[in-house]
Amino acid sequence: MNFNIPSYYEGFNGYNLYDGARGTSGLVQNDITTRYCMRSLYQRLYAGYIPEIPQPWNMRYFKNVTFSLGFIGIIDTPKYGQIPQIAMPSGELGLYLQPTKMLVSQPLVQFEGVRGENCEFINLTPDWTGVMDIVEFWAKRLSIAFTSLDVALINSRVAFIGVGKNKSASETLKAIYEKISAGQPIVVVDKELKDESLDGDNDPIWTYSADVKQNYIVTDLLNDIKTIVEMFDKEIGIAALGEKKERMITDEVGQLTADSCARSETWFDCLTASYDDVNAVFPDLNLSFTLKYGGEVHRYGEKLGEEVVNNGNS
After folding, report:
1. Contact, 235 vs 266, CB < 8 A?
2. Under the phi-then-psi rule, with left for phi > 0, alpha for psi from -120 to 50, and beta for the rest, what region is 61?
3. Which helix (H) or strand (E) holds 296?
4. Distance separating alpha carbons of residues 202 and 176, to the nearest angstrom
5. pLDDT tens sequence across 38-77
6. Contact present, 9 and 17 (Cβ < 8 Å)
7. Rounded Cα gap, residues 51 and 65, in angstroms
8. Backbone torsions φ then ψ of 211, nearest 5 degrees
9. How does DSSP assign 34-86, residue by residue?
10. What is the pLDDT of residues 227-251, one digit of tens each?
11. At 252, is the secondary structure helix, strand, or coil?
């Protein structure tokens, strides 16, 4: 297992969570629209995890590192006491191929410790990865949809195709369109433009009027955007009802709930096991958390169908 996983968050070092080394497809570049979509989806996901941590700890740092990197180290230092830090797994792999040590190399903190003795990890996933791949996956598709929406909105304003008899007539046609697009209620042209002929017709300009309403796809694209967001919600655990129906049977509701809980249940299980480990090493911290998914709030210490609380947390 490769534990040299890059961090997507470095606090005040100036590293932007959404401007990291992103893989781009041929359809989407790492532009402002994609970054906007990443920020929007990340913050949507970010809101569902609510740790209960000691007051001196920085909540934003704690959550961002956990989500973006996929894990965060809890260490005990002589100068700062027990604190969370960006940390890397190190040491020989244990019986179950998990790292046995931890290394912290930050501007103000240098630390090397043994897991279970003076440090421990909080993991979001069993494979030691964060959520930025999920955010980027859906952000790319949302960015394409928004770009298509922009194009559709512009194209919905174009109602005709024009052909001029000569360059002068064509330039006049462009000027007319620009003035109309700018909102001028009346456009006046030279009489000679009317008197000349184009292929035997009375006008030097031939136009073709398009049926703008028939080609209007903005409403469809808005529905597509909504669908993409709902698909993202379902993946991260936000309850999504999908396509509205007048009546949904119990099995259909249950299936939608199950679909929207699979990944979040994995996060909840990994976080629970990690918090157990941290609290065993540092019992005075008494860490706890809640995670919102499936339309419900799940608390640390609870098990499915039971109200069992560990370490005295409620």
Report:
1. no
2. alpha
3. strand 296-299
4. 19
5. 889 998 888 889 999 998 899 999 999 999 889 999 999 9
6. yes
7. 13
8. -85, 90
9. HHHHHHHHHHHHHTTEEEE--TTS-HHHHHHHHHHHSEEEEEEETTTEEEEE-
10. 999 999 988 888 655 554 445 454 4
11. helix
All residue ranges of the chain with pLDDT < 70 are: 1-30, 155, 157-164, 180-185, 189, 191-215, 239-260, 303-314
Structure tokens at 101: 């040590």
**Residue where the block lists tokens 């009546």:** 247
Count of Cβ atoms closer than 10 Å to residue 312 Cβ: 9
- Return the CATH class of domain 11-130+264-299: mainly beta
The residues, ordered by sequence, that sit 6+ positions from 29 with a Cβ below 8 Å of its Cβ are none
Give, for 90, the enclosing helix (H) or strand (E). strand 88-93
Residue pointed to by tokens 């990944």 = 263
Q: Identify any residues that bridge with 160 across adjacent strands, giving them in sequence order.
A: 209
State the greatest distance between any 2 C-alpha atoms of the chain, in Å, as a whole number.
94
CA distance 313 to 285: 11
Q: Give alpha helix (H) positions in the chain.
A: 32-46, 59-69, 132-155, 167-181, 191-195, 218-236, 250-259, 262-281
Distances (CA, A) of 118 to 95, 102, 109, 239: 20, 10, 15, 39
Domain boundaries, given as residue ranges, for the chain: 11-130+264-299, 135-151+217-259, 160-209
